[in-house]
Amino acid sequence: MSRTILIVDDDPTICSELQKELKRNFFPTFIAGNSKDALEILSKNKIDIILLDIFMPDIDGLDMLKKVKSKWPSVEVIIITGYSSQDKAIKALRRGAIDYLEKPINYEELNTSIGRAMEKITENADLTYRHTILLVDDDKNATKRLSRILTKEGYEVFTANNGKEGLEIINNNKIDILIADIEMPVMGGIELLERVKKFQKDIEVIMMTGFGDESLAIDALRKGAINYLRKPIDLDEVLIAIEQAVERIILYRNQLYRDRELKINSQIVSKINEELERRIEKRTLEINQVQSQLFQTSKLATLGEMAAGLAHELNQPLAGMSLCTTNMKKLKQRDLLSDTEIDETIENIEGLIKRMSKVIVHIRTFARQDLQKFKPTNVNESAENALNLMEEQLRLNDIELIRNFDLNIPQIIGEPYQIEQIVINALSNAKDALAQKEISDHNKLHVWRKKIEMKTSLVNQWACIDIIDNGIGMSKAVKEKIFEPFYTTKEVGKATGLGLSISYGIIESHKGRIDVSSEEGKGTTLSIKLPISTEGEDNEE
């Protein structure tokens, strides 16, 4: 039987490619670009497996998983997660997901995960349990007839002719449902009911009574029976009563098993956490120190690369002040230096000093070692500050810079200088990609202009910064490795290979995402997405 799969991802390209692969494997497939559409598809269609992106713009992936498992518990969920998001994936596994896949998705791993999900679905569908019934009645002929009927219905049936025999059978066998006559020799049905309920709580009891014994039947209900049947017995009534008893047994045992499973898991997790806490306490300080040093190294390397631009930012006002003082000297030599000229010159110099001071303060704040605090942040302002630091370097490399900012983007909660660092890293990579293409196209006749476009926009609940270049582009193999620490395609000594790796870490700390689309020879688009609000973030349980 073919299983139906629902792909839930806000990236249309990923959805399209996954759908192609699944259709090749003969899986009927639905696609949803957000969690709201996915829930609507689930409510209208029989879905067996969901491929769910952990980062969704409207409902967080973990919250979506919770909704699915609460309403459609038989649906198996496979989480799709980005690079270095294993912590969320493991949390998803603990919340009911059967597996997770890392982007870029490996199709062999995809097929393996779907195979595991199908295996679990098949096990659940094929798993049957043959319930046991004990018939206790002193009418041997009636007991034999009813036993034959219930055996044909798929039940395992035991019989006894009085309460004492019935009690012995229950002591030696696991009985699910007891059907007993109230009036019997040696031991009656009510006494048997009372004894059984003392040591076997999950057995369900149905009493049989003759005409005029309703008061005894009601007494049996008070003592734990779930139903009673009048003689002569109607077969349909017996089957309905047994089905109701089976439903109660399943509910009770499922709850029992879940409680036990939770208790065992809690004990295991508690033991693991005790050990992890000891190790984490020791390692956390070391990791924080290393991360801080790497981030600082990257910032200082960036400042070194921007030396020409920074010199320009300071030389411009210095040149202006030089002109001011030269003019004052000339006017003084000619005895033309008036109070008005002095006041105007001083005002101009003060303005130039403020401009230099602003640049220096910004550089000092950007370069300082201590960690910044998250606060309401204007994405456009961080992007513009990064451009100001890089603009002269881009101009010296004859790169046309295009600004395309959406001024209506709400503030995010973030660290402005870290966002600025990401943009600077992206601009630096774009600049180098353009330089590489210029070298490779040196002998070609076509006219080509080096361009970088920086675009900001609001997409759903993401504040987006796109850095688009028409440079050399990347191969698929390179694109898969660009976020790995120390990976670089540049010559030895010309790059640390930390820029994009650190950028990825910053994005992760902001609960955002970073995507790259590139085509060899045509250029690259680096997309930074930061959440507008913190709603939907996973809460620790």
Automatic annotation (TrEMBL):
Limits of the Histidine kinase domain: 309-534
Entry keyword set: Kinase, Phosphoprotein, Plasmid, Transferase
GO MF annotations, alphabetized: phosphorelay sensor kinase activity
Cited InterPro entries: CheY-like_superfamily, HATPase_C_sf, HATPase_dom, His_kinase_dom, HisK_dim/P_dom, HisK_dim/P_sf, Sig_transdc_His_kin-like_C, Sig_transdc_resp-reg_receiver
EC number(s) reported in the record: 2.7.13.3
Span of domain Response regulatory: 4-118, 132-246
SUPFAM superfamilies referenced in this protein's UniProt entry, alphabetically: ATPase domain of HSP90 chaperone/DNA topoisomerase II/histidine kinase (SSF55874), CheY-like (SSF52172), Homodimeric domain of signal transducing histidine kinase (SSF47384)
Modified-residue entries (4-aspartylphosphate), positions: D53, D181
PANTHER family, sorted: HYBRID SIGNAL TRANSDUCTION HISTIDINE KINASE C (PTHR43547:SF2), TWO-COMPONENT HISTIDINE KINASE (PTHR43547)
Protein known as: histidine kinase
Organism: Ilyobacter polytropus (strain ATCC 51220 / DSM 2926 / LMG 16218 / CuHBu1)
